[in-house]
Specification:
There is one protein chain. The protein starts with 6 loop residues before the first helix and ends in an 8-residue tail after the last strand. Strand 5, helix 5 and strand 6 form a beta-alpha-beta unit. The protein has 261 residues and is an alpha/beta fold. The longest helix has 14 residues. It has one domain: Vaccinia Virus protein VP39 (Rossmann fold), CATH 3.40.50.150. It is globular. It is 33% helix and 24% strand.
Length: 261
């Protein structure tokens, strides 16, 4: 099969690639994004190996959680939540051999677990974080570890497609810390980084916008055909489109009632 090169061919390819799961391997050679220096996957493996009851919130296809759990020694209790049915089914298949329970639940809904169920709650790039629910399901002394999308992530692409847009504060670190503390948690680690990204062709842009839906919330190829054409021509003329992702790591601990009073 020949490699797509024209505008229409690249659009068609970007539209045809499945968006289920949270696997970005398709972008190899088509787009790049630097990774945060703290190494979330490594931190996650360390925390999971020391925990007895773990839940991954908004797990996607379970890719990140599966890579962090030792198959020969999984936590005694392992669970995950996911809101999108196709992803939930993928996660069930991927995590089944680890004895995990995957529950389909809306991102904004209460967590379907009893109080003090887990000593570790984790989440990579959650759509939103319901801090009171995290505090409720954590055991005293337990922790929440999350890598999150910061305010203004890829706003360069948002602005190109939609025109200049204000950067809201919903994903600010200040708001995250305030919400965690309001829920009774102690923030023990907070790190922030801005990381370069590049898109080598318009097919990669289309697939990215279909997969990461909050960058251009009403995105369809038909609706944004003219900005896509303009961007395609710019890439052809000037090379890869540059943007920046904002990431922050937050770790919060629930006070141990026996020692923190």
């Amino acid at each position: 099969m020949s490699t797509p090169t024209t505008f229409e061919e690249l659009l068609a390819e970007g539209e045809s690639v499945p968006v289920e799961g949270w696997d970005f391997s398709w972008f190899e050679g088509r787009a790049t994004e630097d990774r945060p220096s703290w190494g979330y996957s490594r931190l996650l493996r360390e925390r999971v190996s020391a925990a007895s009851a773990v839940v991954d919130i908004q797990t996607g296809g379970g890719e990140v959680l599966a890579s962090a759990v030792r198959a020969e020694h999984p936590p005694a209790i392992l669970a995950a939540t996911e809101s999108w049915p196709p992803n939930a089914e993928i996660a069930r298949r991927r995590l089944q051999h680890l004895g995990a329970t995957v529950v389909e639940v809306a991102d904004e809904a209460d967590l379907p677990f009893p109080d003090a169920s887990f000593d570790l709650v984790v989440s990579r790039h959650p759509t939103l974080t319901i801090w009171p629910e995290i505090a409720r399901v954590l055991r005293p002394g337990g922790s929440y570890l999350s890598q999150q999308v910061g305010a203004g992530t890829v706003h360069e692409l948002t602005d190109f497609m939609m025109g200049p847009q204000p950067v809201g504060g919903a994903r600010s670190t200040r708001r995250a810390v305030a919400a965690a503390e309001a829920a009774g948690l102690e923030v023990v680690d907070l790190r922030v980084e801005t990381l370069p990204m590049s898109f080598n062709d318009i097919g990669a842009v289309v697939h990215f916008l279909r997969k990461v839906i909050w960058i251009v919330p009403d995105f369809t190829v038909d609706r944004y055909r003219q900005p896509l054409r303009d961007l395609h021509e710019q890439i052809q003329r000037e090379g890869p489109f540059r943007a920046y992702s904002r990431r922050f790591l937050i770790e919060a601990r629930k006070p141990d009632q026996a020692t923190d009073r």
